[in-house]
Design brief:
Elements lengths: L2 E5 L3 H12 L3 E4 L11 H10 L2 E4 L9 H6 L7 E7 L10 E2 L11 H12 L3 E5 L1 E3 L5 H6 L5 E2 L8 E3 H14 L4 E4 L8 H11 L7 E2 L8 H6 L5 E2 L2 H7 L8 H8 L1
Parallel strand pairs: 1-2, 1-3, 3-4, 4-6, 5-12, 6-10, 7-9, 8-11
Helix pairs in contact: 1-6, 7-10
Organism: Qipengyuania marisflavi
Protein name: SDR family NAD(P)-dependent oxidoreductase
Keywords: NAD
Length: 258
Amino acid sequence: MSRLLIFGLGYTATRIAAALRAQGWQVQATGSAGNLDFADTAAVRAALQAATHVLSSVPPADDSDPVLDCYGDALSGHWLGYLSSTGVYGDAAGAWVDESAPTGGGRRTARAAADARWLALGARVFRLPGIYGPCRSALDRVRAGKANRIDLPGQVFSRIHVDDIVSAVVAALRRDAAPGAYNLADNLPTSQNMVIEEACRLLDTEPPPLRSIDDAGLSPMARGFYAENRRVANGKAKRVLGWTPLYPTFREGLAALR
């Protein structure tokens, strides 16, 4: 029997766990929704000893990776996966980036360092852009009156529906994909304004006014989101994993969430 241990059972990993359990996998996990306490080293190490596969969705903390710091010595011999971020590429001035692009030059230096450590261990590192899905999409922001349109001509982002992350990770497990980095993004990088406008169209409401980034009252985290501009290429994941996004653009993804 295939046995997966997930570190960090969050929004995306919870859905990965559900998909694999439906296919007969035994899944254990740390996190508030999991069955293991990350700090219970005896229980976690016992679960690692029984596991055939390990997936971490735990972000770096204090410029280090908690999973690798605590349990890195027990990961040898496992299939390893890590949910990383396309933020490791930094700003590309709107250009396309693939897995050969340099990392570590942007604002996500801690993430880039963790990404590199997992790659060095032979992990499949899934680099993710903005994630949306049920209860976490432009539709929800519009309904809550929290959507913004920012006047930044030429600014583009990549994104991915959470279900497409699930299908890609499952494909990597099924194919026993080679270690390395895999960008998981949809086929249409575009401005956040276009996504908000489509959400408003689906909800039959007027789009929010176009504002400057200074007038929008964004949090420091949100301002950082707009500080980088890139298009994420997904060709390697399609070729190697045999993966095709169910939601190739934000239009299909939002329509399915309406």
